[in-house]
Amino acid sequence: MRPPLGEADPNADVARLTLANVTDGHPDAEEGVAYTEAYPPKTILSMLRRRNPAIIERLQLQHVRRGVYAGNYKLTTVGERVEALYNIDRDPTEACDLSAEYPALVAELQGKIKAFVDKAERHSRDGGMSSDLSRGMEEHLRALGYVD
Predict the structure, then answer these.
(1) CB within 8 A of 63, min separation 6: which ones?
(2) CB 3.0-4.6 Å disulfide test: which of 15, 89, 134, 147 passes with 141?
């Protein structure tokens, strides 16, 4: 399925945008699975605590949000709670939560998120970026804003 972008749009060539292009011939360590993670911005939370504290809880702004894309599915979580499961191929607008219909898939994808988080935390404790990254990959990740 092609993205809903015109051919002239530089973002239409999804295959060119993937970070898999920077693996220098090494296999994809995540095996086609993509992870997302968003931490609550502390400065905004601090401001909201003074101006509108009720909105923080109502919108669950104090929790880390995570997601995993695997195949045609996307699972999103807020804190430890499953927010939704989508079939992004059939439902690109993410309007239909399928989590109640596919509890086994939800559990599998939650396991992938947990494994990813555990690995990232271990990596962080062990000193950060692996020394086996090629200079080209490190420069590419820096240009994308993933590395300081």
Answers:
(1) 40, 78, 79, 81
(2) 147
**Alpha-carbon torsion (87, 91, 95, 100), positive or negative:** negative
H-helix or E-strand containing 37?
strand 34-38
- What are the C-alpha distances in Å from 26 to residues 47, 137, 148? 44, 11, 23
Bridge-based pairing state of the strands 34-38 and 65-70: antiparallel
> The domain containing residue 51 runs over which residues?
28-143
Tokens 């996307």 sit on residue: 74
What are the distances in angstroms from CA 43 to CA 60, 82, 85, 139? 16, 26, 30, 30
- pLDDT per position as a tens digit, 54-106: 999 888 888 999 999 998 999 999 999 999 999 998 999 999 999 999 999 99
